[in-house]
């Protein structure tokens, strides 16, 4: 069996001197209000602070506040060194404007908003921003009509946005009534990505099988579960087998991608893309000047990119399998989960105008994701 290359929309990446960082993707920013602050604490609007523990958050914020509940879900399920920031919102700005304000200050992948900030009026703009900036937007949907038949509920609206970077989940009112912090369960799901070490071996995760600490399962009917599956919305449950029950797990963990990508598909491609950009830039600037437009120079560029792709095979993001070659239509076996379609001699075919502009050939790559078997075309361009 071979897999067609249309599984995921092409990822177009640019390599340039501006804004390239080794981003920490297992990271989050939560957006706070002044009313969340503990007594006598000052926190200026449109600024942020980094926190490395829940105890540190409790120093600045009320334990009864929603921002503390959000932080609790994150820190309880985060391993290693947490990368967590809190941004004090401008109370008169939209969620998208507040996110933009933080984007200009620091990189954090997951954008954690209070449920009250996420409405049918605000979600579309925020989702579009996350899509364009490649940031993850987990949503905790709590309205009862999300698990009812119909097409006018918030869950359907979110599903129909068809964005890769929107990750919806449902929480029932009955569960939240027992513990208000349960309203932010999906933020715990996002925290489990901290287990993934891109430099390690077999550390990539599937969000579908991550046991969550401090999260209660919802008591959902079969009808409700089937509706959530139809709408592509995650839910939280235990799995019973031979009389034994698992920890509470997030299930049906899809993004709202039109290509039916799971959350980890989207996350892993974003991490890989960042590593490819950095490797390409570091190679091109390695000699103190842009590499020459020669076979040797382009071969070294391909080699630097190949090293990253092999690393992502080792860490478990990419895996072996067959694909259909986009040019020949033949079945090709990918031992390490990737195929670079370029040849180092392509640099000799550049036009005079391209050479005068010092334009490197675009690198065309196909990667095969180990967990889903999905194929992603990646186009790497040098600015």
Automatic annotation (TrEMBL):
Pfam families membership: DUF3383
Domain of life: Bacteria
GO molecular function: carboxypeptidase activity
Protein name per UniProt: Membrane carboxypeptidase
The entry's keywords: Carboxypeptidase, Hydrolase, Protease
